[in-house]
Design goal:
The chain has 315 residues and is mainly alpha-helical. The protein has 2 domains: 3-93, DNA polymerase, domain 1, CATH 1.10.150; 121-304, Intergrase catalytic core (hpI Integrase, Chain A, Orthogonal Bundle), CATH 1.10.443.10. The chain has helices at 3-15, 21-34, 50-61, 74-93, 121-134, 140-148, 152-157, 206-218, 235-249, 258-269, 274-281, 286-293, 298-306, and strands at residues 163-164, 169-172, 175-180, 186-191, 200-203. The strands form 2 sheets. The chain has a 3-stranded antiparallel beta sheet, with no helix packed on it. Strands 3-4 form a two-stranded antiparallel ribbon. The protein is globular, with a radius of gyration of 24 Å.
């Protein structure tokens, strides 16, 4: 049996029905884009050694992404490592091999420091000011992200029934993402959040709650973020509008996810404790929150240090 035959047997006949569609699509795309047509996939599985697998991974590190034209990300390479490890584990479990050549293969780490990009206070004010001038409810999702830290999939999936206006609580219990069907056509899928902690409740500031109450009066959709005629507002449309907005007001051209980072940065600057922020962001624990945002608050840390009183003057 050749490697591509093993992977396709494991992926399509065994693994497909045991994972979320979005996970399957990630594996399938990575396999078809970077492994299926590689000479490595033509090798017989009984002759593949750990060194052969490592050599393939080393080649991946130098390969260019079809989408970005830059070197493959650590995430993409790790998906391929997972595919190989899982396929070979399947081969051992079903007596096709005695040993798994991937058992000692290490995952790739991103040596570059993770940089969190957030809008400054002044830039955020410019964004909010411009959106208010538009007087167009279709743009309110941007404001909502700035004050709740929602991911874009969570935002477009949010429905009016997810808000308890009496208690002032917003429930995050689903997300929308794009995936492929059996024919290879892309479509939108609504699913539960990816992780247990992503399913959460967010207390809303009173001013956001008041704005949502007004927005609901004229809404023609079950979704909070929608087109004015009630039709679905696609994530891609929202991202494109956001980028045009930034260009219009000459603000840093950060991506839509920067709104989430901006919320977290403002929250920490305002004195919110990390444990509370982690819960609101849907992080598994506070250490994740600290690791992501510790380097994004240099100015805030400087101010905090300057607030420490000098107890004794030496001059």
């Amino acid at each position: 049996m050749k490697l591509y035959e093993l992977i396709e047997e494991w992926l399509y006949n065994y693994h497909k029905d045991s994972v979320k569609q979005q996970t399957f699509v990630r594996y399938d795309c990575a396999y078809k884009n970077y492994l299926q047509n590689d000479e490595f996939s033509q090798r017989k599985i009984k002759k593949i050694t750990a060194r052969d697998v490592q050599e393939f991974i080393n080649r991946l590190k130098k390969q260019k992404s079809r989408k970005t034209k830059m070197n493959l990300s650590a995430n993409t390479i790790n998906i391929l490592i997972t595919v190989l490890q899982s396929a070979f584990t399947y081969a051992v479990d079903f007596d096709l091999l005695k040993d798994n050549p991937c058992s000692k293969i290490k995952r790739v780490t991103n040596k570059a420091e993770r940089k969190v990009e957030a809008f400054t206070v002044q830039e955020q004010m410019e964004i909010e000011k411009y959106i208010k001038s538009l007087n167009n409810p279709e743009y309110y999702g941007i404001i909502l992200c700035l004050y709740t830290g929602l991911r874009i999939g969570e935002l477009v999936a949010l429905e009016w029934d997810d808000i308890d206006f009496e208690k002032g609580i917003m429930s995050i219990n689903k997300t929308i993402y794009t995936t492929k069907n059996e024919d290879g056509d892309w479509y939108f899928e609504t699913s539960i959040p990816k992780t247990r902690t992503s399913k959460r409740q967010i207390p809303l500031p009173s001013y956001i709650l008041d704005e949502l109450k007004e927005l609901k009066k004229t809404s023609k959709s079950k979704n909070i973020v929608s087109m004015n005629d009630g039709s679905f507002l696609k994530p891609k449309q929202l991202r494109e509008r956001f980028m045009r907005l930034l260009k219009k007001i000459k603000v840093s051209r950060l991506n839509f996810h920067a709104l989430r980072h901006t919320f977290a940065t403002r929250a920490l600057e305002s004195g919110m404790d990390v444990r509370t922020l982690a819960d609101i962001m849907g992080h598994a624990n506070a250490s994740i929150t600290l690791n992501i945002y510790a380097h994004s608050m240099t100015d805030h840390k400087k101010n905090m240090m300057n607030n420490i009183p000098r107890l004794f003057a030496y001059q």
